Amino acid sequence: MYLCFIMFSYATCQIFLFACRRVSGNGFTGKIPNFLGSLPNLVDVAFHGNSFEGPIPESLSNLTKLTTLQLGDIVNGSSSLAFISNMTSLSNLILRNCRISDNLGAVNFSMFAQLISLDLSFNNITGQIPQSILSLGNLRFLSLGNNSFTGMLPELISPSLKSIDFSYNQLTGSLPSWATQNNLQLNLVANNFFLGSADSSALPSGLKCLQRDTPCFRGSPEYYSFAVNCGANSSTRGSDDTIYDVDPSDLGAASYYVSSQTRWGVSNVGQYFSFSASDAKNIIYSPQHFQNSDDSKLFESARMSASSLRYYGLGLENGNYTVLLQFVEFAFPDTQTWQSLGRRVFNIYVQGHLKEKNFDIRKTAGGKSFTTVNRSYTTIVSENFLEIHLFWAGKGSPRIPTEGYYGPMISAISVSPNFTPTVRNGGKLPDGRDIAVKQLSQSSHQGKSEFVTEVETISAVQHRNLVKLHGFCIDGKTPLLVYEYLENGSLDRALFGNSSLILDWAMRFEIILGIARGLTYLHEESSVRIVHRDIKAGNVLLDTNLTPKISDFGLAKLYDESQTHVSTKIAGTMGYVAPEYAMRGRLTEKADIFAFGVVMLEIVAGRPNTNNSLEEGKIYLFEWLWSLYEKAQALGIVDPNLNEFNKVEAFRVICVALLCTQGSPHQRPPMSKVVAMLTGEAEVAQVVTKPSYINEWLLKGGNQSYVTCSYSGFTSSDVSTSKESKHLTTGAGHG
Ligand SMILES: *[C@@H]1O[C@H](CO)[C@@H](O)[C@H](O)[C@H]1NC(C)=O
Ligand SMILES: *[C@@H]1O[C@H](CO)[C@@H](O)[C@H](O)[C@H]1NC(C)=O
Ligand SMILES: *[C@@H]1O[C@H](CO)[C@@H](O)[C@H](O)[C@H]1NC(C)=O
Ligand SMILES: *[C@@H]1O[C@H](CO)[C@@H](O)[C@H](O)[C@H]1NC(C)=O
Ligand SMILES: *[C@@H]1O[C@H](CO)[C@@H](O)[C@H](O)[C@H]1NC(C)=O
Ligand SMILES: *[C@@H]1O[C@H](CO)[C@@H](O)[C@H](O)[C@H]1NC(C)=O
Ligand SMILES: *[C@@H]1O[C@H](CO)[C@@H](O)[C@H](O)[C@H]1NC(C)=O
Ligand SMILES: *[C@@H]1O[C@H](CO)[C@@H](O)[C@H](O)[C@H]1NC(C)=O
Ligand SMILES: *[C@@H]1O[C@H](CO)[C@@H](O)[C@H](O)[C@H]1NC(C)=O
Ligand SMILES: *[C@@H]1O[C@H](CO)[C@@H](O)[C@H](O)[C@H]1NC(C)=O
Ligand SMILES: *[C@@H]1O[C@H](CO)[C@@H](O)[C@H](O)[C@H]1NC(C)=O
Ligand SMILES: *[C@@H]1O[C@H](CO)[C@@H](O)[C@H](O)[C@H]1NC(C)=O
C-alpha cells in the first residue's frame, strides 16, 4: 500500500513529493510512483527527504516538458541515465546520490541548451567527461563529484560556468588552461591529476596533497594532532589548552582549502537549491553566545554544506587517534513557530566508516537548539591521512527557515593521538619563518607558571652558536617548545648519516670552534649558568651556512633527575657521559667538556665513538686513538674521506680532545681555555694521562652486558630510565 503526500500546483504545474511510503515489515520504504509518467505536462518535480527505492521508473522519460527535476537519495537498485534523453527543456537537473551506473554517452548533452544547473554527484557514472557538457552556453553549476569518471579534462569550457565539482573521480592528466581562470570555483580533490607547479598556481594551494594517493608526507609524517574552529575567523584556545585553528575560507559550492602549515584541509561541494548567492552560505554565525559551554567561542561559528563536507588531517603520524566533533544547532529557533520545525539530518563518516546515520544535532541535544553536543570516535591512521566526512543524504527539512539551511553543520574538530608521538607537529611560524617544534613529556613536579618562567629564562639565553628558542605553547596537556628550524640537520647526520653534505677540514674546524664558543657562552658568559648535560653530535644542528648551533640546552632544568624528555634522555647519552657523572651522578660543566671532547674526535674521525661493525681495536674511538697516540701516530684517526687537511690544526684538536676527556674532571680545561687552545692563542698542555677508564674497557671488553650497561662501553643507546642509571652505577662500581 502506498501512502503519498503530494503537493501539486495546477497553476504552475509543479509537484513536490514529500513522502511516498509503503508500509512494510521493516518500517517505511518508498518508491517513486510510476504514475508520474502519465502526467506529461509536469514542469517541476522535486523529491526531497525520502529514501526512495530504486530503480528510477522508466516512465519518467515521458516528462519531456520538465524544467526542473530534483531527485535524490535512492537507496537501492541501479538506474541508467537514458530516461532523461528527451527532457531537453530542463534548466535544473539534480540526480544526486541516485545509484546511477551509466556512461554520459547515453545522453546527447548538446541538446540541453537550457541547463543552468546540473548535479549528477554521488553516483557511479563512468567514462570520460564529454566536451558537450562543458560547452553548454547557460550552464553555471556543474557537479559530477563522487563518480568513476576517467581520462583527462576537456579543453574548453563555457564562460557561463561558475562552479565545477569533479572531486572524487579517477581523472588524470595535467590541467587545461581554463582550470586556473579566475572567478571559477573548481574542486579537483581526490583525483589523479598531474599537478606541475605552474598548473596549479592560480588554484588554492595544497591540491597536490589532496590527490587520491595523498602524496604529501606519505611515509614522513610531521604532525600528531590538529584542531579546527570550523568557520571561525580567529583561532581559539580551548579550555583544555588545545589551539583550534581559524577556518574562515569562503568555500562556496565547489572548493577546498589547505591550512598554511599543510596540517589539515577541508573540501566542500554542494549547491543549495535556491541559486541566490545570499542564501548560499557555507559559514554561519550564531546570533547568541553559549553561556553553558566552557568553550563558547568554538560554537559561535559553524561550517555548513549543501551536500558534502570533508575535513582532512595531513601528515599525521600513523596510529590510533581520537576524533572529537563538536556541534550546536542554531539555525532553528526553539520558539513555537514554524521555523522551529526545521530538522537537520546528516551522516558522519570517519576514515570511510559510517559512524552516525541520520545524525540530528538538535535531537541529540534533547530537542534543544543552542545546546552543545559532541561525538568522539577512535580511528586508525595508516597512511598519514585522516578523513572526516559529513554527508547530507537527503533527509531533513530543506526549506526551513529558508532554502539553504539543511545539510551538515559542524562547529569544531579536534584530533589527538592515543599514543606517544615521535614527530613534533613541525611547521612554520605564521610570518613564514621555519620552525621546529619539540614535544616534552608533561612535567609532573612543576606547575605551569614554573615551567613558563623556566622557558622564558632559556629563551633569554641567545648566542650565534645556540639554537634559538622562539617560544613555547601548551598543546593540550603537552608542553611544546618552538625552535628555529635549521635546514642542514644535525651534525651526526652530516658526519655519519646519509646526508648529502660533504664537510671538508676547514668546515669541520669551524664547526668545532663554533660548538666550543656556544658551550663557553652557556658555562661562563650567559646570565644564567647552564650545564647542558647532553652534548653530543645529535644535539648540534647546522644552519644554511653550516654554522653549528647547540640545541636542547636548559631542558635539564625543566625536569627531575629521574624524568626523561622525548628526544634526549636526561642522564645523557652513552658514549658521551663523563665517568664521574656516570658513576657518582656528579654533575658540573666538566661533564659537558668531556662530552665535547668526544664530539671533537668524532668530527675529526668522521665516525661515531662506538661502531661495533669495525675490527677489534677500532670499535671504541678512544681506545683506538690512545693506541695510536702512544705510538705517536695520532693523525691516523683522521677521517680517510678527507683528501687533505691541516695537520697542525688536526693534531691540536686531537690533543685538546684528549685533555677534555681526562678521567679526572679537574684535569679538563674550562671551555674558555679550550677555545683559546683551539685557536692557537694558548699553548696546548702536553701532559695527558691515559684515563683509567680506557683500561677498564680492555679488561671488560668481551662482556656484552657490561658493554651495554656501562658508560665505558660507549654504546650509542641512551640511558633511558633512572633504573638503568642505577644499574649502570652498580655495574661500574663492580668493575
Ligand atoms: C507516456 O505518455 C504517453 C502519451 O503522452 C502515454 O500514452 C504513455 O502511457 C506514457 N507512458 C507511461 C510509461 O506512462
Ligand atoms: C529495494 O529494497 C526493498 C526493500 O528493502 C526491496 O523490496 C526491493 O526489492 C529492493 N529493490 C532492489 C532493486 O533491490
Ligand atoms: C525520445 O524521443 C524519441 C523521438 O520521439 C524516441 O524515439 C525515444 O524513444 C525517446 N527516448 C526516450 C528515452 O524516451
Ligand atoms: C547531439 O545534438 C546536437 C544538437 O542537437 C546535434 O547537432 C548532434 O548531431 C547530436 N549528436 C548525436 C551524436 O546525436
Ligand atoms: C560502478 O560501476 C562499475 C561498472 O559499471 C561496477 O563495476 C561497479 O561495481 C559499480 N560500483 C558501485 C559502487 O556500484
Ligand atoms: C563516493 O564514492 C565512493 C567510491 O569512490 C563510494 O564508496 C562512496 O560510498 C560514495 N559516496 C559517499 C557518500 O562517499
Ligand atoms: C569574524 O566573525 C564575526 C562573527 O563571529 C563577524 O562578525 C566578523 O565580521 C568576522 N570578521 C571578519 C574579518 O570576517
Ligand atoms: C584505539 O584506542 C582506543 C582508546 O585508547 C582503544 O580502546 C582501542 O582498542 C584502540 N584500537 C586499536 C585498533 O588499537
Ligand atoms: C562532550 O559532551 C559531554 C556530554 O555533554 C560532556 O560531558 C563532555 O565534557 C564533552 N566533551 C568535550 C571535550 O567537550
Ligand atoms: C644546506 O642545505 C641546503 C638544503 O639542503 C643546501 O641547499 C645547502 O647547499 C646546504 N648548505 C651547504 C653549505 O651545504
Ligand atoms: C637516509 O636518508 C633517507 C632519506 O633522507 C632516510 O629516509 C633514511 O632513513 C636515511 N637512512 C639512514 C640510515 O639514516
Ligand atoms: C661502522 O662501520 C662499518 C664498517 O666499516 C661501516 O660500514 C658503517 O658505515 C659504520 N657506521 C657508522 C655509523 O659510521
Task: Walk me through the structure.
- It is a single-pass membrane protein.
- This protein is an alpha/beta fold and 735 residues long.
- The protein folds into three domains: 2-205, Ribonuclease Inhibitor (Leucine-rich repeat, LRR (right-handed beta-alpha superhelix), Alpha-Beta Horseshoe), CATH 3.80.10; 226-417, Galactose-binding lectin (Jelly Rolls, Sandwich); 427-708, Transferase(Phosphotransferase) domain 1 (Transferase(Phosphotransferase), domain 1).
- It is built from 13 helices and 35 strands.
- Mean pLDDT is 81; it is low at 1-6, 8-13, 17-28, 559-571 and 697-735.
- Helix 5 (505-525) runs antiparallel to helix 10 (671-679).
- The chain binds 2-acetamido-2-deoxy-beta-D-glucopyranose (12 copies).
- One 2-acetamido-2-deoxy-beta-D-glucopyranose binds next to loops.
How much is the radius of gyration in Å?
A: 34 Å
Q: What small molecules does the structure contain?
A: 2-acetamido-2-deoxy-beta-D-glucopyranose
Calculate the terminal CA-CA distance, rounded to whole Å.
92 Å
User: What composes the largest sheet?
Assistant: 11 strands, mixed
What is the correct CATH architecture of the largest domain? Orthogonal Bundle
- Average pLDDT number: 81
Question: The CATH topology of the largest domain is what?
Answer: Transferase(Phosphotransferase), domain 1
The total count of helices amounts to 13
Helix/sheet category: alpha/beta
CATH classification, class level of the largest domain: Mainly Alpha
Number of domain units = 3
EC number: 2.7.11.1
Membrane topology: Single-pass membrane protein
Keywords: ATP-binding, Glycoprotein, Kinase, Membrane, Nucleotide-binding, Phosphoprotein, Receptor, Repeat, Serine/threonine-protein kinase, Signal, Transferase, Transmembrane, Transmembrane helix
Main location: membrane
